[in-house]
Amino acid sequence: MKLQKRILLFFGLFWQFHLFAQEPQENKVVLENYTLEQCIQYALDHSNTLKNAKLDIQIAEQQIRQTAADGLPQVSGSLNVLHNYKVPKSFLPAQLVDPNAPEGTFAAVEFQPSLNGQSVFSLNQLLFDGAFFTALRASKVFKKLSVRQLDMTKNDIIANVSQAYYMVLINQERKSLLDKNIERLEKLQTETKALYDNGLVEKLDVDRITVNLNSLKAEKQKLDVGVALSLEFLKFQIGLQTIDEMTIGEKLSEIQFEAPENLAALADEKFDYTQRPEYQLLRTQAELNELNIQRFKSGYYPKVSFFADYGWNSGTNEMSDFVNFGDFWFGNGKYGISLQVPIFDGFRKNSLIQQNKLELRKTQNDLLEIQRSINLQIVQAAGNLQSNLEILQARQQNVELAKEVYRITQVKYREGVGSNLETMEAENALKQAETDYYTALYDALLAQVDLQKAMGTLGE
User: Fold this and answer.
1) Which of 315, 411, 431, 459 is 20–30 Å from 218 (CA)?
2) Architecture of domain 24-69+129-301+342-455
3) Tens digit of pLDDT for each residue in 239-254?
4) Which of 217, 213, 231 is nearest to 171 (CA)?
5) What angle do CA 220, 223, 224 make, to 5 degrees?
């Protein structure tokens, strides 16, 4: 019996563990053969930062509605019920109540019933308020501010995803290259060992190749970790979880440089600063400063509104009369125009106007400064891209030369006119040249992203 219970308990625990292990798998996202464009789109669709930026726009829209509500009719209703459980008394000359009362004396008299009720419906409509209309325009400009912030967030996401994607491509290409180097050395090791077995070379030659081969294998293990980490970083940038899976669908050879034909001429061209969301953001901020100045100036204007009330009131000492709405409740109503004229506020509005004028000047200074900054960014990005492209071209030529040198040293070694040390040096030089090439290629790709960001064309 105990054995059966243990078996049932074991299968019960196993089934629970199976369900627990399967639950994350059901929610796991698998992205296969994703291109850079697909990764960027996925990031834009799933970025929490971008979602918050979009929520800020919706918040701004609700703020516009909130501001506009002040200009719509305001209707309210109220009902007040009062029970004077001890009615207050008023004092009258006693002779008004009792002609025989002594002169100069007073009598305490109740002038109100114990139950009082009042019900009112009120309507208030704003007719003119300069500050309201300016505030309404300002709330719409505030929405534009949120839109500009959204554009900046998109740019940052595109740049971060592009850089992470390029890092994965570079690491994968370096891994492929390292596999070829290991395969090349293993072949050389096999050939050299055969020569050693025939007494044609020394054991030192075999050992030298083995040392290099072991170093490459250790480097490959390290690079395997680098590839995995770079892929995890890309997953993080596009909004995936660590349990999610993805594969890259592009090769490094498919990535095209889209650099302008004449990078040096970019410094002399007049740039359209409105292409940069940062500049647009500051322009919107300046517009908001100007509207704030107008809003506080409008505070000097009169405020006109229309109002209308209609209600009922009642007073009785009996609850049965109080709830008799037909006979003991009496209607009343009024309407009119309200005019409020500001006269003196201790220079409060003037102080607010001056503050916003100073804020506007600061924003205008920031606009001039960001123009200088954008010009510098374009010059630096163009210069870096030009320099990296030249370095990349030189590194590519070095790879071709190193391959040729390695080929010649192999031929000489097989024919017995070259040394094993010379072959190892050529192999190391080729590996270094290839490593330098991919480093230069990654730098050029990052420089291209920087230039696109500086030009405001990232993501186009």
Assistant:
1) 411
2) Up-down Bundle (1.20)
3) 999 899 999 988 887 7
4) 231
5) 85
